[in-house]
Design goal:
Elements: E1 2-4, E2 8-12, E3 20-21, H1 41-53, H2 57-70, E4 85-90, E5 100-101, E6 104-105, H3 119-140, E7 150-151, E8 166-169, E9 178-182
Parallel strand pairs: 3-7
Antiparallel strand pairs: 1-2, 2-4, 5-6, 8-9
């Protein structure tokens, strides 16, 4: 879903909850149990769902944080609460949602200037976000119910798929930092 605050709009992800992936087939995909032992392909899909969903991106963040702090590395996260999102728009000014005055939008740099929000522009932005969210829900949310829930292709984000885990140092947000080790990704 798209979420927003006063600073940005982001595409947010939530941990999996046991849904089946439509691209997963027990005849073409095998997996291993938690001990690395290959499972019978006939049971691999169900085992994969249970195993993969029991350790999510948020668990990975916690584990990496613990490893770093145990090693004496200070971690200064951008967000206090763990977040799984991609920022898709950042608000750098209020220009696009402000009321025009004398043909010009008031600039935030002006001292003692109050920026007046244009409620109609704000409403149009929120309506568009809600429209996109309805589309995302229709296209990518699990279909069915209970044990029959299925996520369509493209509706899941699996850490390490295509690009491996990217271990970085420095100020990481806004594209900063430096890769110190990049793992190998995998394909389904």
């Amino acid at each position: 879903m798209l979420s927003y605050d006063t600073a940005a709009i982001a595409l947010s992800f939530v941990p999996a909850a046991g849904e089946r992936l439509s691209s997963t087939s027990s005849s073409t995909r095998t997996t291993q149990n938690a001990n690395g032992v290959d499972l019978d392909p006939a049971n691999a899909t169900e085992a994969k769902i249970v195993r993969d969903d029991s350790y999510t991106y948020h668990h990975l963040r916690r584990s990496l944080y613990d490893l770093c702090t145990e090693a004496g590395v200070e971690v200064a996260s951008r967000y206090t609460v763990p977040s799984a999102h991609l920022t898709i728009a950042r608000f750098v000014s209020q220009e696009d949602i402000s009321v025009q005055q004398n043909g010009n939008v008031r600039k935030e740099q002006e001292v003692e200037t109050t920026v007046n929000m244009d409620n109609e522009k704000v409403k149009r932005l929120i309506d568009k976000i809600e429209e996109v969210n309805a589309w995302l829900q229709d296209k990518f949310w699990p279909k069915g119910g209970g044990e029959e829930e299925v996520i369509d292709n493209g509706g899941e984000w699996i850490v390490g798929e295509e690009k491996g885990l990217d271990c970085r140092k420095g100020t990481l947000w806004y594209g900063g930092g430096e890769t110190i080790r990049l793992g190998n990704g995998f394909a389904r």
